[in-house]
Hints:
Layout: H1 6-24, E1 28-36, E2 39-46, E3 52-61, H2 76-92, E4 102-111, E5 116-121
Parallel strand pairs: 3-4
Antiparallel strand pairs: 1-2, 2-3, 4-5
Amino acid sequence: MGEKTQKQKVGGFGEDEAVQYLAKKGYKIIERNHRQKWGEIDIVAISPDWILTFVEVKALVAFEKEGIQPEDNLTWAKLKKLQRTCQLYANSHENLVNEKGWQIDLVAIDVHENRCEFRHYENI
């Protein structure tokens, strides 16, 4: 594989930051970058409430975004692919699913020079 693009570098950094953010909030990280041929789950975790949670991470460098929020990069088509991927994961890992079911969260990150600003949307 060649050099990573700036977008891939920011995305990887964002995922690392999201893992730390979630861990501080009491989430247990199960897996990262779970790939299927039709989609990828950035983070698989168990929430503090014991709910299987699939986390989509969207990160943008704050000074490059010009009015665009990281959340804007989660399109309807991307969400549908993500839902399908999560459903298949949950069905093949029934031991992680309890009566509360599972959910998809979005962690949007504005990356600043020396800090990150997080917005966590639960059960999107």
